[in-house]
Structure formats: C-alpha cells, structure tokens
TrEMBL record:
The gene coding this protein: murA
Catalysis: reaction(s): phosphoenolpyruvate + UDP-N-acetyl-alpha-D-glucosamine = UDP-N-acetyl-3-O-(1-carboxyvinyl)-alpha-D-glucosamine + phosphate
Regions crossing the membrane: none
A matching Pfam family: EPSP_synthase
Family: Belongs to the EPSP synthase family. MurA subfamily.
UniProt: UDP-N-acetyl-alpha-D-glucosamine binding residues: 102, 131-135, 172-175, 317, 339
Name of the featured protein: UDP-N-acetylglucosamine 1-carboxyvinyltransferase
Gene Ontology MF terms: UDP-N-acetylglucosamine 1-carboxyvinyltransferase activity
Compartment(s): Cytoplasm
Length: 430
C-alpha cells in the first residue's frame, strides 16, 4: 500500500495547474447514460474515482474511448474522453462496483429515465457520516417511480410511459439528489420544478452539459430549477469545470507553508467564501489572467472561525484542510461542521503532529501552536488525507501519511504539483 513521505519546512513558490473537478466529472460521465449519441468530456481528471465510474458505466453498456482513441494517454493527466451508450445492456449496478464510491449510486436517475427501470446497490464513499439516500428516493417517487429497498439494493420502476414531471421540494439541500433529479427530469413527461435545490457550481456544470445535449433547464445555480422534459437527448462536447476543492486545498497549502504560487486555470467565483476566509487568515489572494495568485510572506496565520454550509457557504470538503491551517494560527479558531456528522477524523491524526484541538459536538476548537512536528499519521478519508499533507508541509522533520489511496480518489499528481513548487513530497510503495 502506498504511503507519502513529506519533509516539512519548505515554502511553496511557482505554478500549480488546477485539474478538472472530480465532483463535476462524475455526474457528467453519468449523464452519458441519457443518450445513445457520444458525449465528449474534456478536462476529465485522472483519478481513482473516475476510473471506478468508467468500470460502472462500462457494465451498463457505455463504450469509453480515452482521448478519442482506445490507448491511454500520458499517465496522470486530465484527458478528453468519449462516452457512447448506444443501448443500455444492464440496468443493475452491482454492490461490488457501487460500494466503493458514493456517486456511483447516481446512475439510478438516468437508468430510470431512459430504460424505465434500475436496480442499484446502496452506495459507499467516504465514511464521513451515515449518508442515507432517502432524498433520492422521495424525489424519484415524486416523478412517479415505484421504489423498493431490499437486500442492500434499490429497485426503481417508472410508470407505464415513463417518469412524469412534478414539483418537488427537497426538505434538505443535497448535491447528489439534485444531480439525480435533474438528470431524471430531462426525459420525464412535462415540467419538473425542483425546489431547495443544491446551488453548487457542479450542478450548474451538469445543467450546462445537459442543455448542450438538448435538455430544457432554467434556474441551475439557484434554489429553484425548472426542467421541461424532452423525448430524447443528443450527444455534446463539454469541458469539465476547474476543481474548486483542489483550488482551495492548494491555496491553504500556500497559506500554511508560506510562499507565492499561481493556481492556474481556476476561477475565484467558484469558491468565493473560502477565499474570503483565507484572506482573513492572512493570505493575499488576487485574480490573474490565468487563475489565482496566493501569497503569504512574512505575516503570520490569523485565527478565523468557520462553519460549513451548502454553496455558496464554506464547503465541507475544505473543512479538514482549513483546520490543518488553523493548527498554526496565532490564536483560537472554532470550526463547526454542519453537513456531515462524522467529518472530524483528521482531528486525532493532526494531534499526532502536535496540534491542539478539542471537540465539542460538531465544533472543533483549534488552539494554534508555534510548531508542528512530523510523525506517522493515517489518512482516513479523501479531504482528511490532504489536510495531513498540508500539516506535514509546515511540520518540522518527516511526516509519513499512510493509506494514501484515499488521496488518489481526488487529487491528480499531488506530489508532482507540490514538488514543482519546492516541497519535498515522495510516494513510497511497499
Ligand atoms: C461526489 C460528490 O459530489 N460528493 C460531494 C457531495 O456529496 P453528496 O452528494 O453525497 O452530499 P449531499 O449534499 O447529498 O449531502 C448533504 C447532507 O444531506 C444528507 N443526505 C443526503 C442525501 C439523502 O438522501 N439524505 C440525506 O440525509 C447527507 O447525509 C449530508 O448530511 O456533496 C457533499 C456536500 O457538499 C460533498 O462533501 C461531497 O464531496
Ligand atoms: C466526500 C467526498 O466524496 P464522496 O462524496 O465521493 O465520498 C469528497 O469529494 O470530499
């Protein structure tokens, strides 16, 4: 099992290219199930989750051609990929494939919309909470689907003649359930109005791609999305938007280690709130022609309180990284997690490096310390893993992060990107 060794203490200076967003690429890939034509996606990040979803889509009958050809492109770089699902050959998404990642459950929407039936295993994904699927089931039921949960599988059947548009109000904001409702509604009869929809940029990206495929959608990016159903969708070409979580992660790494880095190919609007928080913590962030420039030279790290919220609030996917940064602040910061009930597993690992953090319910009180010291630590989930890398960059001596397969789910060429800016990060294969 691979591990990552970090020799801390170096500033970061240079350019870090930002990859396509994992959390946009996954639903976009799933949207290829909605059409018998080719969906071409550009800037698809080369990540373990993307590879896993390709296996799942392949099982349903999607023909996948990387970079328009069948041979692999250069290892580790974002790619252009053609997805073609002439016919859906299997409407079952089996446990062996789906249990590895949360987003694979989302195939339920397109399968149901195009084939009228789906049998999908309950999902897996990062162990950051119970992560139920009740909102997906309620929403699809509102479109007329009949649903049964048995033996770890959800079996969904559309009424005779297909799904029927309806008004549905989500009782709670869910990114995944909004993606699924959006995809299912594109081929439903009549109009669907989704209220209390998630407003994340990845929802907007999916809506743009579906629109290019012929769907009729308005309001994506607001809490009310309206979809006029169409009888079929066509192929399209779409570029995956930049990864805002990767952007925020590297911005926090620079704030932690100090230095001057341009994050290339990204946009400030994707993570407004998080950038403002980072500025309050002492980083200078400016927009450049190619992306964002993040600088912290000389001034220390200020404590800032943060509460995670659905977009446009501070993202839960940056909470662990921000906590790592706050371990070195000059005071006390309170970090409250409101999205997932078990997303503090990095706390005990950060403590191994000398961080002072106490937990009270959903709030972590982080008391900044003058120095962290390298130690062996264990990655527990995707964003927790990278928070340990950020802490390791500023820790004295060597930090060894175990179980880095979590990192490979969501960070493309992490070691290379950091090392090019002066970090000393090495992958160790046993
Ligand atoms: C692949 C992907 O895009 N993953 C992201 C997505 O996850 P995901 O789509 O799983 O997250 P949701 O927005 O659905 O979850 C938000 C909250 O709603 C709850 N919930 C969700 C569905 C449901 O049926 N019932 C229910 O109670 C969840 O347990 C959680 O407490 O959004 C999260 C919140 O921004 C991010 O952390 C994840 O990185
Ligand atoms: C929690 C995440 O992913 P998933 O929803 O796939 O578990 C994440 O991307 O941080």
């Amino acid at each position: 099992m691979d591990r990552i060794r970090i020799s801390g203490g170096n500033q970061l200076n240079g350019v870090i290219p930002i990859s396509g967003a994992k959390n946009a690429a996954l639903p976009l890939m799933i949207a290829s199930l909605l059409t018998s034509d080719t969906l071409t996606l550009e800037n698809v990040p080369h990540l373990a989750d993307v590879e896993q979803l390709m296996r799942i889509l392949g099982n349903h009958g999607v023909d996948i051609a990387v970079n328009g050809r069948r041979e692999r492109q250069e290892e580790g770089y974002s790619r252009t990929i053609n997805f073609t699902c002439r016919t859906i050959v299997d409407t079952t998404a089996p446990y062996e494939l789906v249990s590895k990642m949360r987003a694979s459950f989302w195939v339920i929407g397109p399968l149901l919309a195009r084939e009228g039936r789906a049998r999908v295993s309950l999902p897996g994904g990062c162990a950051i909470g119970t992560r139920p699927v009740d909102l997906f089931l309620d929403g699809l039921q509102a479109l007329g689907a009949n649903l049964e949960v048995d033996g770890g599988y959800v079996t969904a059947t559309a009424p005779q003649g297909g799904l029927v548009g309806a008004r549905y109000v989500f009782p709670k904001v869910s990114v995944g359930a909004t993606h699924v409702m959006l995809m299912a509604a594109t081929l439903a009869k009549g109009t669907t109005v989704i209220e209390n929809a998630a407003r994340e940029p990845e929802i907007v990206d999916l809506a743009k791609c579906l629109t290019a495929m012929g769907a009729r959608i308005s309001g994506a990016g607001t809490s009310t999305i309206t979809v006029e159903g169409v009888t079929s969708l066509s192929g399209a070409r779409h570029r995956v938007l930049p990864d805002r979580i990767e952007t925020g992660t590297y911005a926090m790494a620079v704030a932690m280690a100090g230095g001057d880095v341009v994050l290339e190919g990204t946009e400030a609007a994707l993570l407004d709130n998080a950038l403002e928080t980072l500025r309050m913590a002492g980083a200078e962030i400016t927009e450049t022609e190619t992306g964002l420039r993040v600088v912290r030279n000389g001034n220390g790290i200020q404590p800032v309180d943060v509460t995670t919220e659905p977009f446009p609030g501070f993202p839960t996917d940056l909470q662990a990284q921000f906590m790592a940064l706050m371990t070195r602040s000059s005071g006390v910061s309170n970090i409250t997690e409101t999205i997932f009930e078990n997303r503090f597993m990095h706390v005990q690992e950060l403590a191994r490096l000398g961080a002072r953090i106490s937990l009270s319910g959903q709030t972590a009180r982080v008391e900044g310390v003058p120095r962290l010291r390298g130690a062996p630590v264990m990655a527990t989930d995707l964003r927790a893993s990278v928070s340990l890398v950020i802490a390791g960059l500023a820790a004295e001596g060597e930090t060894m992060v175990n179980r880095v397969y979590h990192l490979d789910r969501g960070f493309e060429r992490l070691e290379e990107k950091l090392n090019r800016c002066g970090a000393v990060v090495e992958r160790v294969s046993d």
